[in-house]
Design goal:
Number of helices: 16
Number of domains: 1
CATH topology: TIM Barrel
Family: Belongs to the FMN-dependent alpha-hydroxy acid dehydrogenase family.
InterPro entries: Aldolase_TIM, Alpha-hydoxy_acid_DH_FMN, FMN-dep_DH, FMN_HAD, FMN_hydac_DH_AS, LMO_FMN
GO molecular function: FMN binding; isomerase activity; oxidoreductase activity
Cofactor: FMN
Distance between the termini: 34 Å
Strand content: 5-15%
Largest sheet: 8 strands, parallel
CATH class: Alpha Beta
Order of helices and strands: HHHHEEEEHEHEHEHHHHHEHEHEHEHE
CATH architecture: Alpha-Beta Barrel
Bound molecules: flavin mononucleotide, 2-Ketohexanoic acid
Oligomer: single chain
Protein name: Isopentenyl diphosphate isomerase/L-lactate dehydrogenase-like FMN-dependent dehydrogenase
Shape: globular
Helix content: 40-55%
Strand order of the largest sheet: 4-11-10-9-8-7-6-5
Length: 387
């Protein structure tokens, strides 16, 4: 274990005796509001917003509220093990940083700060294709930390193969292929501001530095940025991939492949049939299909259908240690966290990401203890009650 996670609580309580004063709120509910004060209004709306009316974002949280934990007593949970094995690797906790693009809109250090914070805690960072720093720069910042690469699967096989080669060479172990954002959803908060961060060149560091992508351009991006941006947008949105195209990715990636954005049981089965290593049950934090099923509601039938044949990860709406326990009890191996640490990044860069994640991990450790579990593997359906 990288650190005794519950120890962050002691550090804070004992700040008068030389411990730590939290740099900003530890309250997951107040976190979003507090970030509003430290990032630009358009960046805040982009991060906090969802698709359409926001119904799926609300549903994601409501689904967590329908499940309650049922604590057990006198289990001697004084010594606990929060570690988890995910795709063959042992992690200090079943927690990963979800891929989040364009991080420079909330803090100038962007993905570099996030990579350092994740590495310090031993948690995998999943780097977005749409990052504001290149694959190689972020690898440098993450040092020995575990790193995965998220692919927005471009409509050009040379560009795709080139990015995968770069990611592999830079030490990314696992490929996460996001399937639910092949075109951008109707997002009223961004439309009202006519705000798309990519049009400022944010989030294009990896494609703009890619030799295969640059070979497609008549002029180098440095000489004609608008054309380069439009070319990128045309390659990465409106893509026409189908299940038959997955072998292409397998040919160009020799590590584990995880499909992100699975919500239907039959798609989960297809991922198994296609020989994929994992799936992320996710509705993209409610940012894509307004009115889509809550991610936590989609999880149990999918976990039951695929069993141990594929690793099931989960995201969308995870905010607390209790939420993590609920997702694990319903069949997830691990969870991805999105917005909370992005707010931390906006507050205080690397320290802010660390503060949010340490708080979440401490909460997980304490929740594990107080519900009577000694290890993550003990958490199961019997730990829950549906109300
Ligand atoms: C600002 C922002 C940018 C995102 N960018 C990406 C991305 O580049 N690739 C991706 O697969 N998912 C992206 N996501 C979705 C997250 O990976 C994740 O699915 C979602 O945030 C989980 O929900 P949560 O924010 O409620 O934790 C983004 C989410 C946010 C909030
Ligand atoms: C092409 C979209 C990349 C960012 C993203 O996934 C999001 O804003 O949700």
């Amino acid at each position: 274990m990288a650190e005794r996670f519950g120890g962050y609580q002691n550090e804070i309580y004992l700040h008068g005796l030389g411990g730590t004063k939290p740099p900003f709120t530890t309250d997951p509910v107040r976190l979003a509001e507090s970030a509003r004060e430290v990032v630009s209004p358009e960046a805040y709306d982009y991060v906090a917003g969802g698709a359409g009316s926001g119904a799926t974002m609300v549903a994601n949280r409501a689904a967590f509220d329908r499940w309650k934990l049922v604590p057990r007593m006198l289990t001697d949970a004084t010594a606990r093990d929060t570690s988890a094995t995910v795709l063959g690797a042992t992690l200090p906790a079943p927690v990963l940083l979800a891929p989040v693009g364009v991080q420079s809109i909330v803090h100038q250090d962007g993905e570099l700060a996030t990579a350092r914070a994740a590495a310090a805690l031993g948690l995998p960072m999943i780097l977005s294709t749409a990052s504001s720093r290149t694959i190689e720069e972020v690898a440098g910042a993450s040092g020995d930390g575990p790193r995965w690469f998220q692919l927005y699967w471009p409509n050009d096989s040379d560009v795709c193969a080139s990015m995968l080669t770069r990611a592999k060479a830079a030490g990314y172990s696992t490929l996460v292929v996001t399937l639910d954002t092949w075109t951008l959803a109707w997002r009223p908060r961004d439309l009202d501001r006519a705000y798309l961060p990519f049009l400022k060149g944010e989030g294009l560091a990896t494609p703009l530095s890619d030799p295969a992508f640059r070979a497609l351009l008549e002029k180098a991006p440095e000489d004609d940025m608008p054309s380069a941006i439009l070319r990128w947008v045309s390659l990465f949105t409106g893509t026409d991939h189908s299940w038959e195209h997955l072998p292409f990715l397998r040919e160009h990636w020799d590590g584990p492949i995880v499909l992100k954005g699975i919500q239907h049981v039959d798609d989960a089965r297809r991922a198994v049939d296609a020989g994929m290593d994992g799936i992320v049950v996710s509705n993209h934090g409610g940012r894509q299909v307004d009115g889509a099923i809550a991610s936590l509601e989609a999880l149990p039938p999918i976990a039951n259908a695929v069993g141990d044949r594929i690793e099931v990860l989960f995201d969308s709406g995870v905010r607390t240690g209790a939420d993590i326990l609920k997702a694990l009890a319903l069949g997830a191996k691990a969870v991805l966290i999105g917005r909370p640490w992005v707010y931390g990044l906006g507050h205080a860069g690397e320290d802010g990401v660390r503060h949010v994640l340490r708080g979440l991990l401490a909460d997980l450790d304490i929740s594990l203890a107080l519900t009577g579990h000694r290890s993550i593997s003990e958490v199961g359906p019997e730990s829950l009650h549906r109300s």
